[in-house]
Specification:
InterPro entries: AB_hydrolase_fold (IPR029058), Lipase_secreted (IPR005152). This protein is of the alpha/beta class and 404 residues long. It has two domains: 240 residues, Rossmann fold; 88 residues, no CATH class. It is built from eleven helices and nine strands. A hairpin with a 7-residue loop joins strand 1 and strand 2. It is globular, with a radius of gyration of 21 Å. The chain starts with a helix and ends in a 20-residue tail after the last helix. The relative contact order is 0.12.
C-alpha cells in the first residue's frame, strides 16, 4: 500500500515537472543560433567568436554571454561558452584584474550550462557584487560541450583548465573591457578541481597571462578518496554517469562493464543530461537509492585502470610559488570533509603556500556563497601584491576514517 502511494506521488511529481520542462525547452531552442558552432572554428584558442548581453542585472556591472574557441586535450579545436561581468566604473591604470570563475557540477544537458540557465548567476551570491565594486572583471566558463557542440569532458583536468584560461583570453577581446593579464582562478566543487589544476597547467597553456593564485571551495580534488567514500550512495548516481561518459573519451580502454551496473549503463546518458538543480533528477536519484540500485558495482577505485586514471586526474601539491586557498565545510555531504583534510596535510607537508578555511553547518551547495567574502579578501591580497599566508599551523578539524 505504501509503495503504491509513493509511486502515485512520484508520477504526479513527474507530470508537474514535465509541464515546466516544456517551457524550458522552448527557451533552449531560442538560444540555438548564438551557441551554434561556426563553420570554421578559429585556430587560436581563446578567440572571441560572438557576444551579446546576458540579460540579467548585476549591480555596477555590464554582463555578457560569450562564445569562444578552446582546445581539447588531444589538440583539436572546440567551442565553449560562458559569461563575462565587467564593472561599469572606469578601469584603473594598467587595466582591470580578472577573476576566472569555474562552476561546480551542473549536469551535461544544454540547459544546464550556466549561461543558458534560468538562473545564470548560480552560487555567485555574496561575492560577485563585491568583485564588481572592487573593479575586477569576472569570467565564467560553461566548459566545452556544456551548452555547445561536442562532448563535455567532466573532471578532465586539461580540458577544464583550457576552458578557464581561454575564457579569460576571450574576455580581453570585448571592446573597451580594459582587462589586464593578471588573474586568479576561483572555483567550486568540480570547479575547485579546475582551479587547483589551473595552478599547474594554466601558466603553460596561457603564458601571456599572469596567474597570481588559485582558490577553491569544496574542491573535488582527490577523486579516488571521494569516489571511494560515495560510490554506493546517491552521489554515485549524481556524478557517476558524467564520469563514465567522459573518462572513456580520454582513455578508450577504461572498462565500463563490470564496474558500472546494468542499471547504470542503461540510464547513464539520460541522467547525465539532467541538470543537478532539477527536481526531476533529485526525484530520480532518490527513487533509485530507495529501491537499492547503485550506479557502480563496487568502489571503482578497486579497478586498476579506474584507480590509475583517478590518480592522474587528482592534482598534486602546488609549488610554493603558486598561492592557494581552500575552503571546506565539515557538514558537506557531497565532497566530504575528510578527503580535503588529507589534501591540506599533504600539501602542507609538500611546502605549498596553502591557506585553508574550515566552516561548519554549511551544505555543499552553499559553501562557495558562504566563504565568498573571505575568498574576495584573499584574492584582493593577491592583486595587491601582498605575501600569501600559510595556515599549516592549524590542523584540519576532521581526519580520515580508519582504514581509508
Amino acid at each position: 500500500m505504501l509503495g503504491a502511494i509513493a509511486l502515485s506521488a512520484a508520477l504526479l511529481a513527474i507530470a508537474l515537472i514535465a509541464s515546466n520542462d516544456q517551457s524550458a525547452n522552448q527557451r533552449q531552442v531560442a538560444f540555438g543560433p548564438f551557441y551554434a558552432t561556426p563553420a570554421e572554428i578559429p585556430a587560436q584558442p581563446g578567440t572571441l567568436i560572438r557576444s551579446e548581453p546576458l540579460g540579467v542585472s548585476v549591480p555596477g556591472a555590464t554582463s555578457y554571454r560569450v562564445l569562444y574557441s578552446s582546445q581539447r586535450p588531444d589538440g583539436s579545436m572546440a567551442v565553449s561558452s560562458g559569461m563575462v561581468f565587467v564593472p561599469t566604473a572606469p578601469a584603473p591604470p594598467g587595466g582591470r584584474p580578472v577573476v576566472a570563475w569555474a562552476h561546480g557540477t551542473v549536469g551535461q544537458g544544454d540547459a544546464c550550462a550556466p549561461s543558458r540557465s534560468e538562473n545564470p548567476l548560480g552560487d555567485t551570491a555574496n561575492w560577485l557584487d563585491q568583485m564588481m565594486q572592487l573593479g575586477w572583471v569576472v569570467t565564467a566558463t560553461d566548459y566545452t560541450g556544456l551548452g555547445t557542440q561536442g562532448p563535455n569532458l567532466y573532471l578532465v583536468a586539461q580540458a577544464e583548465v583550457s576552458d578557464v584560461v581561454n575564457a579569460v583570453r576571450a574576455a580581453r577581446q570585448i571592446p573597451n573591457i580594459n582587462a589586464s593579464n593578471r588573474y586568479v582562478v576561483w572555483g567550486h566543487s568540480q570547479g575547485g578541481h579546475s582551479s587547483l589544476w589551473s595552478g599547474h597547467l594554466a601558466p603553460t597553456l596561457a603564458p601571456e597571462l599572469n596567474l597570481l593564485g588559485v582558490a577553491a571551495a569544496a574542491p573535488a580534488a582527490n577523486l579516488n578518496l571521494i569516489m571511494g567514500a560515495q560510490w554506493d550512495g546517491v552521489i554515485g548516481w549524481g556524478i557517476g554517469p558524467e564520469v563514465a561518459l567522459s573518462w572513456p573519451i580520454i582513455k578508450p580502454t577504461l572498462p565500463i562493464n563490470g564496474v558500472v551496473t546494468q542499471q547504470g549503463i542503461d540510464n547513464e546518458d539520460s541522467i547525465a543530461q539532467q541538470c543537478t538543480s532539477s527536481n526531476s533528477l533529485l526525484l530520480n536519484l532518490a527513487v533509485r537509492k530507495a529501491f537499492g540500485q547503485n550506479f557502480f558495482t563496487e568502489n571503482p577505485s578497486n579497478n586498476p585502470q579506474w584507480k590509475s586514471l583517478g590518480l592522474q586526474q587528482t592534482p598534486s601539491p602546488l609549488p610554493a610559488s603558486m598561492p592557494v586557498f581552500v575552503g571546506q565545510s565539515t557538514a558537506d555531504q557531497v565532497v566530504l570533509a575528510w578527503p580535503n583534510a588529507v589534501l591540506q596535510n599533504q600539501w602542507c607537508a609538500a611546502g605549498s603556500t596553502i591557506s585553508t578555511l574550515w566552516v561548519g553547518e554549511v551544505s555543499h551547495q552553499l559553501t562557495a556563497e558562504t566563504i565568498g567574502p573571505d575568498v574576495v579578501r584573499w584574492i584582493n591580497d593577491r592583486f595587491a601584491g601582498r605575501p600569501a599566508l600559510r595556515t599549516c599551523n592549524l590542523a584540519p578539524p576532521v581526519s580520515a576514517p580508519a582504514g581509508s
